[in-house]
Amino acid sequence: MSSRVVKVLWVERLSYGTGLRLQKALADQHHNKSLNGHIVNTLLLLEHNPVYTVGIRNKGYTIDDENKLKSLGAEFFKTNRGGLITFHGPGQLVAYPIINLKNFQNGVKWYVCQIEKMIIRLCAEFGIKGKTSPDTGVWVDDKKICAIGIHASRYVTTHGLALNCNMDLSWFDHIDPCGIQDKGVTSISKEMQMNVKVEDVLPLFKNAFQDQFQCSLIDFSPGEASEIIRSCQDLQVLRN
């Protein structure tokens, strides 16, 4: 299989914990030398149940902070991605590319730049003028529409981006998204003043990813997708 082929795994709604285990399982395939020849780059697409996550620059969130956010009905996770605190939830398209950058370009900066360009291009298809800023992500004026936070180990990427489609933006009222004060958040639906669902954005997102990264996308079969998700959920049951 060509190194520029990326298999797409759309799993609809998933808990954040299961999403982490799924990313790890897919990334581990790249690092397991015995699996050479069967390793594929993967684009994992989903929506999360409500969850607040902090990155490696977590600014020392206390247990009180954590409990306060949990009391809102969301989960709370500390992760190894870049960036500070953000929120994921229904109505937000989350994309986790699990790819080997050696198949594309070696640089993490290049990779983040490509993601930003891809989202700006996608926003333009909705007539929305997205832009970059010194703060990572894609912005519409001073409102963030897409958060980006990645992790790379031996050139293999995990985590990724979260694009606000038609989510409830009030979840962000309880945090400074990505640690940035005096700026807001927005969504495709808010900018368009109409309901634009994740399912409406998916085909445009996949086309933008394919063009920006100059790769071919192939969907996992429903059976393959179900088997992968079930294996991660079964693993959690065993750990409990």
Percent range for β-strand residues = 25-35%
Terminal CA distance reads: 37 Å
Number of helices: 6
Order of helices and strands: EHEEHEEEHEEEEHHEH
* Helical/strand content category: alpha/beta
**Share of helical residues:** 25-40%
Low-confidence stretches are: 235-240
- Spatial extent as radius of gyration: 17 Å
What is the overall pLDDT average? 86
Walk me through the structure.
With 240 residues, the protein is an alpha/beta fold. It is 33% helix and 27% strand. It has helices spanning 16-31, 63-70, 108-125, 188-192, 198-212, 222-239, and strands spanning 5-14, 41-48, 51-54, 75-78, 86-88, 92-98, 138-140, 143-153, 156-164, 184-185, 216-219. The strands form two sheets. Strands 1, 2, 6, 7, 8, 9, 10 and 11 form an eight-stranded mixed beta sheet that branches. A three-stranded mixed beta sheet has the order 4-3-5, with helices on one face. α1 (16-31) crosses α6 and α3 (108-125) crosses α5. It is globular and about 40 Å long. The N and C termini lie far apart (37 Å). Mean pLDDT is 86; it is low at 235-240.
